């Protein structure tokens, strides 16, 4: 987009205005004359409204929440905001029994999403790309979990895992005293139980991304590799996968985002009880609702922001570097 | 979200609740601007209308409140404009709701949760109302309706006790007797286990039911005054008295239903309905799960057994709901009239006719229409020396929701290592109570 504007502007500016006035006037008024009042208004609105929205909804709120992280505030009246320095963070790092498990679970979430559903999605995409019969049906079936709201996904899986009446325990007879398996409450099980649901959804997402990537692979590459006598696996490993590089970057970013914003599934499943604490849930529990520990909740949000930045900044740097060299 | 309101029959994550919640979430976005619009438009109708913010979103209480307001309109000629929000949503948004343009009067809870907003200046004192209605209420209700400044802020309407619920037919079949002491209670648990029953049904997925268990053992063991001190953040959680509460509780944990942290209270109640469990310690709203009339008639309860004879069974946990006056009511005179009406026994009787799962807060209300269960609850509450509200209504909600709920879930699942749990609670409590 930026390249487009830079190439156009000089062009526009050099068009000599019809009925040329003195060169001096032309230089000073060239731009203005081309843009009528209406143009300027439209431009102002088109650039101004998004800017205002962006600044108020993204920057002001983000900065306000960073500032609030160093205060305590119950959300009632601005005069009740008190500055407490680093106390919130001190409390968070040393006293909150849920904080470190939450960080750990966010990391586990990412690792699992990258290790299981991502290769699985790639595998499905490769299979579906071979023009198998009913390809559309499979695509729809695998992609359906992505379309369904995460809250609904969480609710459905919660029914499957329900320790008393759920599908799993009923099938394996684990809902009797003595054989009880508490998928939702047991902290050794519940995170994995939810991750199964998360993987179920994420596989479909990855499949679609990779399928789109595969459609973009030049067929002549396949042809060339088969002419060279490569078998299917060799073709995939040495020819197809390397050309999927841009898709892989997108997949990585999407998965990191998914891991950091993981919330709805768990919240519906068991509200982030022990074993499934997540940073996003801690923020919600502290800020929303009557508890209104807005300063403290903001401190957790700042931690999440720092983690996100630590992931995103290297990505942006490498992208820009590539763009510049290209 | 995890919003605990033990006095109110809260749906946990039942199928219907989630579906309703999904619909509600969709409406929510559109609802917020509408609410202010409602409040704004009521100015035009001057003194003829009083607006009410209501959290009674469930069908039964909604109709019951509707009946009460209709009776008021009939008597006074003042229209009541009811603005009902989803129960959980109302509670979650109460801060911003009261700071914005709240309705003239709003439904809320007695105890600390009322005093908090009163102290913040978000409610108007109603001492003038209490001059008229004061005689209708027992002294315990007077205390529950006062803010920390000694002024009245709430007109109580309904209440209901927490107790140990059981089925008469089950007790008859096995020849059990109602235990009045702790030893008898534990012995009964043992016997039930031998008889193949789950002695104590339990579900703590919503994280608030365990707070009820803690409360009962705490005020039986340490008395009402200690409950108040502990909830107010004055007593220490590392006190040996608190440790004893957990030890006593741990004694009965093996008799609680397995896997409690993954179970909703509704599912736990179903085991009592199905006669698979012998007892269930919960609020009277457990009766809602007894949809069959014959089952409901079979339901009975007893007060939590005595642990320390010095305190006996003198305290009853009876969460009370009522109505408050917001900070700047548009129609002050009309609101006062409405509050005075709500403080009459007639208003409470109208309410209970439509919602028999609660009892009246007024001691003058007619009890002749009560069911056997309601009568027993009424006697229990009127005979109590102290009424408590429930941990999350007697203490700071930020403390109970972010510290106590996860801590108690942890204890219920793994009752070892209580000391480190308690010192963690105490450390967190200090920070929270230090922030004004």
UniProtKB/TrEMBL annotation, chain A:
<dbReference type="GO" id="GO:0005886">
    <property type="term" value="C:plasma membrane"/>
</dbReference>
<dbReference type="GO" id="GO:0055085">
    <property type="term" value="P:transmembrane transport"/>
</dbReference>
<dbReference type="InterPro" id="IPR050809">
    <property type="entry name" value="UgpAE/MalFG_permease"/>
</dbReference>
<feature type="transmembrane region" description="Helical">
    <location>
        <begin position="41"/>
        <end position="70"/>
    </location>
</feature>
<feature type="transmembrane region" description="Helical">
    <location>
        <begin position="191"/>
        <end position="212"/>
    </location>
</feature>
<comment type="similarity">
    <text>Belongs to the binding-protein-dependent transport system permease family.</text>
</comment>
<dbReference type="InterPro" id="IPR035906">
    <property type="entry name" value="MetI-like_sf"/>
</dbReference>
<dbReference type="Pfam" id="PF00528">
    <property type="entry name" value="BPD_transp_1"/>
</dbReference>
<feature type="region of interest" description="Disordered">
    <location>
        <begin position="1"/>
        <end position="31"/>
    </location>
</feature>
<keyword id="KW-1003">Cell membrane</keyword>
<feature type="transmembrane region" description="Helical">
    <location>
        <begin position="107"/>
        <end position="128"/>
    </location>
</feature>
<feature type="transmembrane region" description="Helical">
    <location>
        <begin position="294"/>
        <end position="317"/>
    </location>
</feature>
<feature type="transmembrane region" description="Helical">
    <location>
        <begin position="140"/>
        <end position="160"/>
    </location>
</feature>
<keyword id="KW-0472">Membrane</keyword>
<keyword id="KW-0813">Transport</keyword>
<keyword id="KW-1133">Transmembrane helix</keyword>
<keyword id="KW-0812">Transmembrane</keyword>
<dbReference type="InterPro" id="IPR000515">
    <property type="entry name" value="MetI-like"/>
</dbReference>
<feature type="domain" description="ABC transmembrane type-1">
    <location>
        <begin position="103"/>
        <end position="317"/>
    </location>
</feature>
<protein>
    <submittedName>
        <fullName>Sugar ABC transporter permease</fullName>
    </submittedName>
</protein>
TrEMBL record, chain B:
<dbReference type="InterPro" id="IPR050490">
    <property type="entry name" value="Bact_solute-bd_prot1"/>
</dbReference>
<dbReference type="Pfam" id="PF01547">
    <property type="entry name" value="SBP_bac_1"/>
</dbReference>
<protein>
    <submittedName>
        <fullName>Carbohydrate ABC transporter substrate-binding protein</fullName>
    </submittedName>
</protein>
<dbReference type="InterPro" id="IPR006059">
    <property type="entry name" value="SBP"/>
</dbReference>
<dbReference type="InterPro" id="IPR006311">
    <property type="entry name" value="TAT_signal"/>
</dbReference>
């Amino acid at each position: 987009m930026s390249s487009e504007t830079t190439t156009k502007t000089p062009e526009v500016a050099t068009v000599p205005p019809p009925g040329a006035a003195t060169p001096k006037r032309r230089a000073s008024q060239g731009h203005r004359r081309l843009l009528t009042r209406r143009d300027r208004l439209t431009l102002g609105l088109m650039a101004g409204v998004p800017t205002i929205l962006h600044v108020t909804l993204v920057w002001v709120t983000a900065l306000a929440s960073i500032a609030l992280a160093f205060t305590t505030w119950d959300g009632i009246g601005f005069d009740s905001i008190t500055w407490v320095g680093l106390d919130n963070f001190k409390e968070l790092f040393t006293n909150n029994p849920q904080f470190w498990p939450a960080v750990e679970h966010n990391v586990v979430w990412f690792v699992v999403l990258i290790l299981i559903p991502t290769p699985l999605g790639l595998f499905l995409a490769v299979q579906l790309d071979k023009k198998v019969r009913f390809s559309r049906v499979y695509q729809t079936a695998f992609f359906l979990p992505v379309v369904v709201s995460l809250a609904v996904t969480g609710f459905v899986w919660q029914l499957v895992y329900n320790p008393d009446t759920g599908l799993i325990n009923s099938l394996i007879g684990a809902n009797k005293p003595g054989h009880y398996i508490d998928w939702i409450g047991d902290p050794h099980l519940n995170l994995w139980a939810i991750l199964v649901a998360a993987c179920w959804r994420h596989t479909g997402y990855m499949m679609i991304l990779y399928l789109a990537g595969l459609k973009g692979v030049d067929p002549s590459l396949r042809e060339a590799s088969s002419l060279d006598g490569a078998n299917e696996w060799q073709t995939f490993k040495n020819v197809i996968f390397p050309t999927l590089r841009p898709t892989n970057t997108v997949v990585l970013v999407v998965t990191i985002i998914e891991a950091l914003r993981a919330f709805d599934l768990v919240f519906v499943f068991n509200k982030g009880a022990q074993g499934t604490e997540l940073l996003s849930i801690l923020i919600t529990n502290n800020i929303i609702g009557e508890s209104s520990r807005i300063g403290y909740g903001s401190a957790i949000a700042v931690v999440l922001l720092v983690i996100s930045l630590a992931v995103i900044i290297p990505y942006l740097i490498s992208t820009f570097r590539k763009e510049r060299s290209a | 979200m995890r919003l605990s309101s033990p006095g109110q029959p809260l749906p946990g994550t039942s199928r219907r609740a989630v579906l309703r919640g999904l619909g509600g979430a969709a409406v929510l976005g559109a609802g917020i601007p509408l609410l202010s619009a409602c409040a704004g438009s009521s100015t035009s109708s001057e003194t003829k209308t009083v607006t009410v913010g209501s959290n009674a979103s469930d069908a039964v209480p909604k109709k019951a409140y509707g009946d009460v307001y209709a009776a008021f309109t009939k008597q006074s000629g003042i229209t009541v404009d009811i603005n009902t929000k989803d129960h959980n949503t109302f509670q979650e948004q109460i801060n911003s709701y009261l700071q914005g343009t709240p309705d003239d009067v709003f439904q809320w809870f007695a105890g600390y949760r009322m005093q908090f907003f009163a102290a913040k200046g978000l409610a108007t004192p109603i001492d003038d109302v209490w001059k008229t209605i004061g005689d209708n209420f027992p002294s315990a209700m007077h205390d529950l309706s006062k803010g920390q400044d000694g002024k009245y802020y709430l007109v109580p309407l309904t209440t209901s006790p927490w107790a140990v619920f059981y089925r008469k037919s089950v007790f008859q079949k096995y020849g059990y007797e109602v235990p009045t002491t702790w030893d008898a209670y534990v012995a009964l648990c043992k016997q039930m286990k031998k008889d193949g029953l789950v002695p104590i049904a339990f579900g703590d997925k919503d994280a608030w039911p365990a707070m009820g268990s803690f409360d009962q053992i705490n005020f039986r063991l340490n008395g009402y005054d200690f409950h108040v001190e502990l909830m107010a953040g004055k007593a220490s959680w590392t006190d040996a008295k608190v440790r004893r509460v957990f030890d006593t509780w741990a004694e009965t944990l093996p008799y609680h239903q397995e896997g409690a942290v993954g179970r909703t209270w509704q599912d736990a109640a179903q085991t009592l309905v199905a006669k698979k469990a012998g007892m269930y310690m919960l609020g009277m709203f457990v009766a809602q799960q007894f949809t069959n009339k014959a089952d409901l008639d079979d339901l009975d309860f007893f007060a939590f057994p005595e642990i320390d004879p010095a305190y006996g069974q003198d305290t009853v946990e009876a969460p009370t709901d009522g109505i408050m006056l917001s900070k700047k009511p548009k129609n002050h005179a009309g609101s006062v009239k409405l509050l005075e009406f709500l403080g009459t026994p007639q208003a409470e009787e109208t309410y209970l006719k439509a919602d028999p799962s609660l009892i009246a807060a007024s001691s003058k209300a007619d009890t002749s229409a009560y069911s056997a269960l309601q009568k027993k609850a009424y006697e229990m509450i009127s005979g109590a020396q102290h009424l408590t509200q429930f941990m999350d209504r007697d203490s700071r909600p930020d403390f109970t929701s972010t510290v106590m709920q996860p801590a108690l879930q942890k204890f219920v699942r793994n009752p070892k290592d209580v000391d480190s749990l308690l010192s963690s609670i105490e450390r967190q409590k200090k920070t929270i109570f230090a922030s004004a």
